């Protein structure tokens, strides 16, 4: 009898994607905060899916495990990290202004064990931030990473309301940022006016990709219906005339 592995989905940020982890022998439920192993060390996340049992052949590559449910001490560490992130944000913004760097600070993420602080930013061109990194290392005495992100990733972090009146898809219903093309807008009979098919980020709206398969499926079904009608006896007789 094949052994089955208990798999759950875990998020590290509310607007982030869902990652699969082995629950091992832990009994966890949706909403539980857990400590997990990652490539960058331990991290705290929240369980967002029910347990699913998978055979070994169905397991994701490089599957990591849940270490434990978060304790009160872990929650205290998380609160300390959030304070550190806010301090790091303010300090970094001050240094960006002092050094007159052409970059926009978007978010700060402190790893659970404080072994590294990641600063996410956007910029139109390459930025020489070597002096900024030195200042940050000297201030926080840990590894520092400055990571440049795109406009769509920025919108996902900062959120906002789309033209539909709902929170932007990238920060809501979408787990991953899929590729969006003008062809998708054409197939959905959308106006190709950039102002009408662009999101808050200035790029093509994510919902074009999210709804594309539905439109494509309807189009395929319509074509099958037409082809079936052409094959009816009446249609054949008409052609013979």
Average pLDDT, to the nearest integer? 82
Give the class from helix and strand content and strand pairing.
Answer: alpha+beta
Distance between the termini: 65 Å
Supply the number of helical segments.
Answer: 8
What is the molecular shape? flat
**Looking across the biggest beta sheet, what order are the strands in?**
1-2-6-3-4
Percent of sequence in beta strands = 15-25%
**Radius of gyration of CA atoms, rounded to a whole number:** 24 Å
**Helix and strand element order:** EEEEEEHEEHEHHHHHH
Task: Name the helicity range.
Answer: 25-40%
Number of strands: 9
Q: Give the uncertain stretches in residue-range form.
A: 236-241
Question: How would you explain this protein's 3D organization?
Answer:
The chain has eight helices and nine strands. The longest helix has 27 residues. The strands form two sheets. It has a five-stranded mixed beta barrel. A three-stranded mixed sheet has the order 7-8-9, sandwiched between helices. The chain has 241 residues and is α+β, with helices and mostly antiparallel strands.
